[in-house]
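Q: What changes when adenosine-5'-triphosphate is included in the input?
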Amino acid sequence: MATLLRLERVSKIYPPYIQALDRVDLEVEKGEFIFISGPSGAGKTTLLNLIFGLERPSSGRIYYAGREYGRLSRTELIRLRRKMGFVFQDFKLLPNKTVFENIYLGLEILGVSPSEAYQRVYPWLRRLGLAGKEKARVETLSGGEKQRVAIARAVVREPELILADEPTGNLDPQRTREILEILEELNAEGITVLVATHDESLYRGRHRRVLTLKGGRLVEEDV
Ligand SMILES: Nc1ncnc2c1ncn2[C@@H]1O[C@H](COP(=O)(O)OP(=O)(O)OP(=O)(O)O)[C@@H](O)[C@H]1O
Ligand SMILES: [Mg+2]
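A: The predicted holo structure follows.
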């Protein structure tokens, strides 16, 4: 199997001196499904932000398919980011836009025409229980609905890598199971998935690789 993602001694220090990540080593094979666990403040979001290239490490190196982020131009980094789908913990939906417009956004940059986008977005709206909500402005949605729009926006492009930050944090147990099943189905189709969560019940019994952040260090759990 090919290595998709590699982190070498990656540290992130926020001023004045908050060590969010401390010499993290991580190797992710193409097609893996990994949970990143750890309590609130453990550095999960920081780790995903670094992988997405939204922030730069204070030291250490990150490689995607063998290419080191520090050597990429801004344009190359943006192009690389298009291979990934990020489900943000705080959703980052565009206000004053509809559910459809928010989900379509990621397809538009890929050059997908509006009519083709329609074909791709609608099955996801149904699958995520958002059918009938496509014309609703996102600020009128409940927290759980917003979360599902954020998930739809990330998965509709069928990216190579999905980074999901606490993707079920606002959902009831039934929806939580459904979202996990969707992520597992996408993974079965070959998409690599990283899910960050503080919720142990999410990965209990799933027989997946679990990595835990403790004091900024990443530790592999025996499951
Ligand atoms: N932009 C920032 N500036 C300063 N400190 C930050 C910044 N972002 C994160 N931190 C700090 O880094 C540490 C890790 O934060 P992070 O958001 O990665 O944790 P987390 O594991 O995602 O937590 P949660 O489960 O609450 O989402 C925390 O101590 C946090 O306060
Ligand atoms: Mg977080």
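Observations recorded in class: Residues 31-59+78-220 form a domain with the Rossmann fold fold (CATH 3.40.50.300).
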